[in-house]
Write a structure and sequence with these properties.
Elements (H helix, E strand, L loop, with lengths): L1 E6 L10 H8 L3 E5 L9 H8 L4 E3 L1 H6 L1 H7 L4 E6 L7 H12 L4 E4 L4 H4 L14 E3 L10 H11 L4 E5 L1 E2 L4 E2 L2 H15 L9 E6 L7 E6 H4 L9 E5 L5 H8 L3
Parallel strand pairs: 1-4, 1-5, 2-3, 2-4, 6-7
Antiparallel strand pairs: 7-12, 8-9, 10-11, 10-12
């Protein structure tokens, strides 16, 4: 009958929009995409807020068994809940396209995402360059792409948002400190001076929540700070306007 793709925002069960909440309440089945991000609340809190039983959709279900969700939407009202905004990850665009192929009616209900919430740092959003992600290093897997993206953006005077790895199945959520250490390792290996201990950066935690934390300082200074509970991200400023400099001063 209809598939609702609903953004939940970044923090609590109450961050869903009124429009999104109304849609969830009238759905027959409610799925929560459960691997690309994380809310700072439990599934039971969501169920209490929505008055609905929530089915967790892990990576395998969304990427390999999405037809189970989509086929239900042919004859019923189905909600697919996404932390942040609906199209924060390409996975959700794939769900959208597959629903289109099946001629299922789709309704999109947007919400805030890290790509907009990072505006609180004070750097102009239209001056961000390519966003990059920092994965956990493993034996034989130490990708330098985040470093190269920062280098490219710096060359163009642009800011860089670095999203940090999430491995929910292993309960591993990367911290600002871990990201700094990995970027410093890459710099030590490449010796290009792109990400050094003296580079001024911004560390963020729990953006979108009431207890968010933002700190601005050198990589060495930030690496000594405990940013607390996830989710975390890094911002590497590019060329600064005087208003941006003043805003960053709030977070020193």
């Amino acid at each position: 009958m209809v598939l609702y793709l609903i953004g939940l925002g970044l923090s609590s069960a109450k961050d869903v929009t009124l429009k999104g909440l109304e849609a969830v309440k009238k759905c027959d089945s409610v799925y929560l995409e459960d691997y690309t991000s994380k809310l700072n609340c439990t599934v039971s809190e969501l169920e209490k807020q929505y008055g609905k039983k929530i089915i967790l959709a892990d990576r395998e279900m969304v990427e390999k068994k999405a037809d189970e969700i989509l086929d239900k939407a042919k004859d019923a009202k189905v909600a697919f809940l996404v932390v942040g905004d609906v199209f924060s990850a390409t996975t959700h665009a794939d769900v959208y396209m597959r629903a289109k192929e099946k001629n299922i009616e789709i309704r999109i209900i947007h919400n805030t995402s890290i790509l907009t919430a990072v505006g609180i740092v004070g750097l102009e959003l239209y001056k961000y360059g390519k966003t990059t992600s920092m994965p956990f290093f493993e034996k034989g897997f130490e990708p330098e792409t985040p470093y190269d993206v920062i280098k490219m953006n710096q060359k163009n005077g642009l800011h860089t948002l670095v999203l940090l790895d999430i491995k929910k199945d292993l309960n591993r959520l990367m911290t600002v400190n871990q990201a700094i250490e990995q970027l410093l390792l890459i710099d030590d290996r490449k010796k290009e001076g792109v990400f050094t201990p003296d580079l001024k950066i911004v560390g963020c935690a729990r953006l979108g929540s009431d207890d968010f934390l933002i700190k601005y300082g050198t990589a060495k200074e930030l690496n000594e700070i405990d940013f607390g509970e996830p989710l975390h991200c890094l911002v590497v400023p590019g060329k600064l306007h005087f208003v941006e400099e003043a805003m960053l001063g709030l977070w020193k």
